[in-house]
Amino acid sequence: MHVNDRHVLLLFLDGVGLGSADPESNPFVTAHLPHLTKLFGSAWYVNGRGRIQTNRATLVPTDANLDVPHRPQSATGQATILTGRNVPQEVGAHIGPWPTDDIYTILREGTIFNAVSNAGGHAVFLNPYPQRYFDAIARGRRNYSAIPFAAVQAGLPLLTEQDLRNGAAVSPGFTNRGWREQLGVTDMPLLTPHEAGVRMAHLAQAHHFAFVEHWPTDFAGHRGPFTQATATLELIDAVIGGLLAAWDEERGLLIITSDHGNIEEKQHGKHTRNPVPTILLGNNHRESAEIVHNLTDISRVIQYHLGIEP
After folding, report:
1. pTM value > 0.85
2. Terminus-to-terminus CA distance in the chain, angstroms?
């Protein structure tokens, strides 16, 4: 079966769950999030509200625990999203942040990147990496995390600093400020959050399937002040504003999801067993939402939208 002429963007936000309405623990409560609030109404981020459906989008509380005890972790959660398989059950535990040999083996057996490419479609992982990352991989000083490994094993190139300069990539921090302040690339052009969202939409719509990873949410959940977590959420909302302004809702499906909770319980800095929010916006969002119950379903939704047989 061949891929159709639609497109999907998966915006992956690491470590985001649905939490309580307590402003002392949940930065969603104090953050100013006008674009997401316009989509779903007030307190959409509170656990226990159930599915929220509007004319434009659907929010589905999504199980990240997958019938495995203890707190979900990044390697198994991300591998589950990428493969549609219950990876923590297969390997016997939630594992992270780095994949084990068993998880790498599962990823080699096929991911959503492979499924799209094998159906004749164009897939892309839009995050860029600095040269020091490629050097460390080549020297064996670091391992791939689940998402870049999935892209590489599917034959997709990892994007570079030059791709980001040329406007052909999306920084994990969206605005490129991290490249200046953390990586020392002081002349990297900066984007406003709105501009970053518009760029993400345009790049994604040039492919059948695009994946963008944002990990600062998990970092802000683990460490740093409460105000940093709030600012991170407000940045995401502003980026989503630009993304929605440029998104082709007739042919495109936007999916926003996560691998586990974290930032919504800022008081302890650990992962949570809360459901994660999966947001579906655009073409067939209602029908697509009916498929989603846990993280194994994300890959199925993408294939359903693109007309690929799971």
Report:
1. yes
2. 10
Strands (E), the chain: 7-13, 52-53, 57-62, 123-125, 128-129, 159-160, 209-214, 252-257, 276-282
Contacts 24+ apart (CB under 8 A), 232-235: 232/27, 232/263, 233/27, 233/28, 233/31, 233/33, 233/263, 234/31, 234/32, 234/33, 235/174, 235/175, 235/193
- 2, part of any domain: no
Query: Which domain covers residue 93, as residue numbers?
Result: 7-306
Identify the H or E element spanning 151.
helix 146-153
Max CA separation in the chain (angstroms) = 51
Q: Is residue 143 part of a domain?
A: yes
Tokens of 113: 């990147």
pLDDT in tens, 224-276: 999 999 999 999 999 999 999 999 999 999 999 999 999 999 999 999 999 99
Copy the structure tokens of residue 57.
């989008």
| Structural contact between residues 282 and 254, judged by C-beta atoms closer than 8 angstroms | yes
Q: Apex CA 266: angle with CA 48 and CA 71, to 5°?
A: 65
Q: In the chain, how many domains are there?
A: 1
Residue 1 within a domain: no
Assess contact for 195 and 236: CB atoms under 8 A: no
CA 181/CA 95 separation, integer angstroms? 31
Judged by DSSP in three states, 12 sits in: strand
Going by C-beta distance under 8 Å and a sequence separation of 6 or more, which residues neighbour residue 217? 13, 14, 15, 16, 232, 233, 236, 258, 262, 263
Q: Is residue 252 part of a domain?
A: yes
pLDDT for 309: 80
CATH number, residue 111: 3.40.720.10
User: How far apart are alpha carbons 288 and 184 in whole angstroms?
Assistant: 42
